[in-house]
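Reposting from the mailing list since nobody answered there.

I have sequence plus structure tokens for a pair of proteins and want to know whether others read the tokens the same way I do. The first protein:
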Amino acid sequence: MTLGDGELVEAPESVPAPPEVVPALPLPRLVVGKTPGVLTDDRLAEAGRKVLRFHLARMFAREAGTIEGVNPEDLKAMRVATRRQRAAWRVFGSAFDEAATAKHRRRLRGVAADLGAVRDLDVMIENVEAYQAGLPADESAAMEPLLAVWRANRDAARVILLRELASRRHQRWMESYAVFVETEGAGVRAPGPVEPHRVRDTMPSRIWAAYETLRGYEPVMRWADITTLHELRIAAKWLRYTLEFVREAMGPETTELIELVVALQDHLGWLHDAEVAAGLARAFLTAHTGSLADTEARAIGRYLADRERELARLQKGVGTPWQPLVAEPFRLMLGRVTASL
């Protein structure tokens, strides 16, 4: 199921039983600090390796909790760690040999997809449950057919995730990936004799390229549709991660820049969640109108209307977090922090 497309996936006739949860296999031990520790004189590949090692350690730290399934924050944090690693491959990937590192990128993409399939439904279910909390008891109960489908889909997605995390293929990959992030020079593409290859030589242009991509949306912001705003959210994440990965090598103003980008990213994330929830609720009503009681159809219809109102509100208000990013003070600050490299 691709929630981002608003696609309805019916609950399976029977959700397969999850594999027996056994104690997690011992994970490779990665010793990392409180931050990745990227320095201005680091070679680009080794700076990327530091970032990958840091977030792989965080991913490992949350895997046992994700398998256990008691605290949803474990799954959320594990997914965040995979996202950071995928972003790091995008930022630093050109410094590595593509063929030598393809398996790590490919496997990371697969794990991220399995985690995301569960987490996205967690978010949708949490949203409906929060909405239910403000309803009278009878109307709250009328939302249950929608939740039943989403919960069944979530359970099915979790079965797939658990089977993958328990697989020998996953274990072998984790072991080889841990060796890769611990081994200086592994998988590195040898730069040319005069090719820029250090953080201070290469990251300013990469940061500005990410900013230019974001600022390219300025001419269309007044009439941007939902699809365009979704693309803008991706551009905001790209700028945020590029800044975050080298924030230690730049000045303290970097934190303020990141906070401004995060404000836009969060706003667009809430907009995306509202759009997905509205799309799934609409598809559910279309598919099940003949089998729903009138009270159920009305209750779910009111939830759909609530999500559409929230979507319109967020779309109308996107200028508030957007304007600081295209104002002169932001550009001046960005210039100062990149000049410090």
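The second protein, same order (residues first, tokens after):
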Amino acid sequence: MSIHKRVAFFLILLTIPLYLLSLWLVSRTVLGEISLRKMNEKGLLSAVSYDSRNATYHYLLGRFYQYNSDAFDPDKAISHYQESIRLSPLQGGCWLDLSKAYQTAGMEKEAGRAIERALRLDPRNPEVIWEAGLFYLISGNLETAVKNLREVILLRPERQETIYDLLWKIELEPEYIIKEVVPDSYPYYKRYFLYLISTGRVSESHDLWRTMARFPVEDELFVRYTDFLISRRLYEDAEQTWRDFVGKKFAGKTEDQPSLIWNGSFEFDMQNGGLDWKIGKTKGAMPFLDSDIHISGGRSLGVSFDGKHNPDITVASQVVRVVPGANYLLRGYARSDSLTTTNGVFISVEGHKCKGLYKKSEVITGNNFWRDITVEFETPPECGAVSIKIRREKSEKLDNKISGTAWVDGISLMKRS
């Protein structure tokens, strides 16, 4: 054999082991990935056996033992998390799951060290910060817990209500929540305020409302808060809030007539809530403001009926604060054009969240120029507010499809001596 053939032969002998080693390394990874597709204990263990230095396989096996109720084993989970971190120490998610496993196993010190490591590796991850907040809260470290939860609010504002619910459940002082948890800016105050009124917290919402006075509060929030106070029968507070609102929004403007009703001549833009008119909607009836037909001021409230329906509609309603046991006169003007059926338009009064009061005016139908319509009533002893309504009731007759148009204007409510 020549020298060249002998060299070639030895090179082949050296190449074969390297090739076999490379083939094994590649096949081990492939086999591991194939086993991993099963995602059960057998498949995960097979993946680890084929490629024991793959940190991901150990991490997934740790999660399997931690979160699978049928194979729950915190000790095995911890062992595989530790091996995954040994192979790849910079896994924030693995440190976080290791912390949870430590907590489950009652290893609080180890859990604390793991959560701190996760925070250092992923300091802007809201999920890590959230878990850290919960850990410190459970551990009794309130200051650090609150710091983390506040950071979650800044990073994920949509999770505010979840955090507020948590803090209210552990009965933190309301002042502490505002001072230490809610970020000091209007959007966060507004979100927390809406949370308070949605959960019915009267005193706390009142205190926060006063704090928010330094911000330019939008109209919608004034209306929402007034509606909340009305729903709680806090009519005096609702009236004061409404006065603040209209004093700012309609500064220097007054109504033509003294009345307990706000915007009785429909001159101001209706807020559709609070202590203003709420407009109703239903098929076959269309309320509208009319600047051409009016008797008081420059506008009236009209409603057109299409002749195809038999609607029952409160065209507009308003809550008005009253004195219990007092006499009142409700008055307005109504006009109609070709208003069909015997069930036309009228004004009525009924107790707001109180019983024993319901009265209505005459019903306007057909063709009428402006007519004076009135309702006299006495408020029940426990009645602090009434609801004034402009109505059309559903007809039970065969010929009940209403058409035509009606207008109302100059509605007033006066207390009688």
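Reply #1 (J.P.):
I read it the same way you do. The chain has a mean pLDDT of 88.
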